[in-house]
Amino acid sequence: MNALKHIFKFCLVTLFLASCVQEDDNTDFVDKIAAPSNVSAAVTVTQDNTGLVTLTPLGEGAISFVIDYGDGSGTSNEIEPGDSVEHTYTEGTYEAVITGTGINGLTTTVTQQVVVSFRAPENLVVTIENDAAISKQVNVTATADFATMYDVYFGEAGNDDPVSANNGESVSYVYQEAGTYTIRVVSKSAAIATTEYTEEFEVTAILQPLNAAPTPMSRNAEDVISIYSGAYTNVEGTNYFPDWGQAGQGSGWAEFDLNGDTMLQYINLSYQGIALADGTSVDVSGMEYLHLDVWTAEGINTIETSLINNAGGTVTEAPVVSALTAGEWTSIEIPISDYTDQGLTVTEIFQLKFVGDPWASGTVFIDNIYFYKAPSMVATGLAGTWKLAQEAGALGVGPAVGDIGWWNCDADCVDLRACYYDDTYVFGTDGSFTNNLGSETWTEGWQGGSDSCGAPIAPHDGSNPATYVYNETAGTVTLNGTGAFIGLAKAVNTGELSNPADAPVSVTYNVDFIDANTISVYIEAGAGVFWQYKLVRDGAVVSPVAGTWKLAEEAGALGVGPAVGDTGWWNCDTDCVSARACYYDDTYVFGTDGSFTNNLGSETWTEGWQGGSDSCGTPIAPHDGSNPATYVYDETAGTITLNGTGAFLGLPKAVNGSELSNPSNAPASVVYNMTFIDANTMSVYIEAGAGVFWQYKLVRI
Asked: Are the beta carbons of 623 and 598 closer than 8 angstroms?
């Protein structure tokens, strides 16, 4: 039978690989599967003083196990998941070594203590606790000297089977009902005798929420009418606890405070009303939905929500019933049409009513009661399709706005992440927002990706509908919709995500327009952690020189002579290029917004006139890129003008009409002549005195 299982497993794996090969010959994905995790073994000892122990290996992602028993007797044969192995020990304490192997051959090895004692367990210590987060769940932990394992009998009628665990590990059990139960713990060694502990324990239900209701989306004021919510401005003067006689039926009410977050609490809910201030009503005919979040422990299966209207002095109402899930927040969205289809006029809503089923038998907590509609914003300068600027530094992180010194995506990074830099962020004129990622984007380990191009991963794949609210005065844009993001998905207002499931329903970014087609965006993802992005409007006309350039690393790319095209006086040959490597890696960045930057790194070529030593050294001001600069490209004249003291192309000493002899004489502006050899190569020259032409060949990177 065991041989048959091995044959079957071999065939199954072979069939799997064969079927995959038909569609895709690349099996690199197998190499990316992680090694097995949570490897351990369940240890069961036979209580007959023989030392016979059963070991059942466990582990996630393992297709086989091997156990070294730790007593010098060797190792087991291969054990398949779900199977066990028996081994007889002499009395003593052993370190068993369990090795789990994955489908790609990666292994994980752990050591586990096995105690074999022919003495009954001694000094038994048992801890029994109600779980803090799961209603009616009890957690038990038992430890004892000489013990190998223990059984727990939880004492609930109809369930006499024990739950077993290794000595010192924990077990859990969820009861059907709260109440007092007899819990018995039997601690076992290899001896026939056992040691027991019994306790009468009160199992409790969690009767109130442990977490706040989901935070509502940011909305324009004209798109929401709030009755009770900390996220919006509520209708003034509302009475949330009018006594319409329900107190006489045993119902009660209070405002419950959960760590500073308040919500309405209706106790033994029969019916409960909310009344707007006298003479006040709201017209919700222009709204699309009524929203409320409801939490109940148990006892209430449904809640009936009625709107009560007072049009023309005639009071009418209509109910809608919604199911509730015990022990968690239920977000209820009721279309206004569910009321109007019943013939209810909704132009003068002055009361709401909630009815519990069963009647007066359970407690509910209610938060975020509001009417809303889809965004009705008008078109703004933000409306359109945007994407990250394809240039070094357009994506980065640092300790302050404008500082991306911790990390930023350089030119090589931009090239590597081409699948990401073509992603677009679409702000609709109707307030809709869409992440368009195509078939591939950059996926990271925290998402389950492999820090490479791959298929987008939900919810950060653009599959969820989303909206945005742009506050021009505050300079912010809020994206509403789980998984909607700008720049990097992991950077949110509360920190950096470690799991896609933790994606918030709303994220707010700071936005600043550099020009009509370029925006600077940042988000503080934790105290003093600023992720920063530069976005350009897709389809906008961009200067052909925009991008990152550097000197071509070839002989003759830098030189000087008496005429354009003649570098006979001096040019940098192959040995010179090698000697000045610290200079040939300098970059000249022409931003899509008209900015210009000399990025020289920690070293560049410094000369005697600067105070350098004609060698690699620390960049010297003002030719170190420290001053802000801009550029103007004149296609007709074939010129590039750099504005900003110390900004330069090629050699800083060559300026219009002269060669500098002191850094302090650097002009505020320098004009270069240029021609495109091709889209990614330009020839640049400057006449630094009559008949003195410094010439450079630059390539786009």
From this structure: yes
